[in-house]
Write a structure and sequence with these properties.
Chain lengths: 415, 415
Amino acid sequence: MRQIIVKNISIGDELLIGQVINTNAAWLGEQLAAHGFQLDSALTIGDSEKAILDAFNACMDADLVLVTGGLGPTADDITKPTVCKFFGTELEFCHEAYDNIVALFNRRGFQMSERNRGQAMLPKTCQYIPNTYGTAPCMWLEKNGTVFVFMPGVPFEMKGIFNDELLPRFKKRFHAVPYEKRVVMTTGIGESFLADKIKDWEENLPDFLSLAYLPQYGMVRLRLSGRHKNAELLHATLDKETEKLTALISDYIFSMEDKPIERVVFDLLINKGMTFASAESCTGGNIAHVITLIPGSSEIFKGTAVTYATPMKTKVLGVPAETIENHGVVSQPVVEAMAKGVRNLMEADFGVATTGVAGPSGGTEETPIGTVWIGVASARGVVSKRFNFGKDRENVINRATIAAYEMLRQQIIVP
Amino acid sequence: MRQIIVKNISIGDELLIGQVINTNAAWLGEQLAAHGFQLDSALTIGDSEKAILDAFNACMDADLVLVTGGLGPTADDITKPTVCKFFGTELEFCHEAYDNIVALFNRRGFQMSERNRGQAMLPKTCQYIPNTYGTAPCMWLEKNGTVFVFMPGVPFEMKGIFNDELLPRFKKRFHAVPYEKRVVMTTGIGESFLADKIKDWEENLPDFLSLAYLPQYGMVRLRLSGRHKNAELLHATLDKETEKLTALISDYIFSMEDKPIERVVFDLLINKGMTFASAESCTGGNIAHVITLIPGSSEIFKGTAVTYATPMKTKVLGVPAETIENHGVVSQPVVEAMAKGVRNLMEADFGVATTGVAGPSGGTEETPIGTVWIGVASARGVVSKRFNFGKDRENVINRATIAAYEMLRQQIIVP
């Protein structure tokens, strides 16, 4: 059986003028791939009848069209009347949808408005699919063999409906081709050098496997993936090829799992029953922010001192004022004193510190914008390193955060 | 003159299996709108010749097609040969592109690889546009009156080239229709209730204006926007309609500018020459993180103590241990002591503190998951408030951060 064609359409002016970033397409693509389907394209259009009809017509070669957005309670939504036009039907009151909206308002203790009642008006020929996450309906319609599913645009609602209601229906209706992937996380080597190192291996990959390079903030994520009707063969081939790949680039690999570096550090520390704390200047709390997004981080993370104002480095972290005066605030002695200082202050096993010039101003000839010193203190003493992360402020903050976690990881795994 | 049709195509398998979220389309849409153009659609496709050719053909009704991605140095990129096929040309070595790559490697002190040399092979008929941000080229080609511009997919490079090189060329080549928008930021009222309050006003808006509701983390952003060849009329009408709108919902407005709440606070503090510091428990450094993304934040931001481990609240911030013991760590007395403590420690005008249960575990009947106490200390004393932000960890952190900045803003603007 052939792989079905799946397309996504996102509707919303707000997506085209940049006020909201469309994260639904990426999420749907990931979920579909994980369940043996493949997203072929994702189209974003505005709230206009013509754009919607054009997009629907352009999707008639697909087996499944997942439409998100355009179903909210307010007047900027024109999706439903256009759906009726395309499918040659009209709106009618749907009791099941109405009961669902009433139940939702009761649970939340809010009053319903007339607009919310309007959300229960659905195309006559649609199959109503319950949305227990919000008031917007989910609808299933078909035309000449193409299935159109309409979902709310709110990510939380869309994800819930997709998992609870749609995925089981898709599996019943369509043929899924086994898909599997492996991810190898590398750092300390650029994309093109990595490619040169693995060129021969890559050229001899079997047809049903492909490799993608996904560079991001001083790391390159390698994704080896494939589809094959024989799931066992696919799995065994991926095992074998991943083994060959990792042998070629072992020096640069920091994880064989698709997880961010802070998650790698989290898992290591949990295993060892150890803790860390950070002293942040140029990273401004981002080291703390990314670790505290992980549930349970209080087990391994003691806290942070963001000493953005220079005198606070002395007052809070105990960096001697003369060290700052003699060496400058962005210097090796200062970052090492910060790392040791926060380790003592927070009573942690490891202290991580950053001091640098994130820009866009503040650089000097000796210490240009992008210069960052990173230090890690432990029971063994303190290590430190100087980096330059370029001129973009957000980029400097993100790359310094990742480099700090990589230096911390290196210290944790020291035998 | 008519409004030109602009379409965006993003190329990359990684965008369709969810490993990378496409933020380029939103950014391009925003920039285009701000300069009098309008993004009509954004299509994401995979790295396949057929998908690329289909997408190019489907864009031949556009005046301008902005293509991002597919120009990296590695083998997963098939864009350039496909471009040659579509435009009926072939690749040739471009000296200008090569010199640019060499210069970039020299600046960074890296060695060039053979693959990077390959990036200087460009379609013969293309106009080469310099990319000083990276090694991928930017290319301009035309076919039957439709302009195709190919940009790197790396957001940092794409943005730089767009601003430096492309926007001036677009302005010379195409006619821009005046576009203007107003944004009203509201909090404390849901989307459907807001809609009911302004229904009559909204229904009587002139045809060339439209209103969008953009809900996010306990706020609703209202965007009133329009296009009109008469820029003065557009401006005056927006003035008048915005005035009517704000009169209807004045209780819920926290800003009339489209900027995040931390930016509102930044501007207020810069104007007053005042500073703040934060003591963060459940927000885990996010209050610091969002303010330090703003260039110049060191003027108004002294620092943060993330006291994730409970004893650190006593040791670093001076919260009396018996206060924590008697009232619990998520309590009004603790948050108030934290706010006062960090204000003293960091020698700031305002101290902001959070303590709460971000979840997914750690809730009790008295203090369920999502409970957050927020406090703000100033020379006038301390204010505090209890919130519940629901069960999703990231949502709790984000909503608590926004609420903390809103409480800080209220204290700054007290006469």
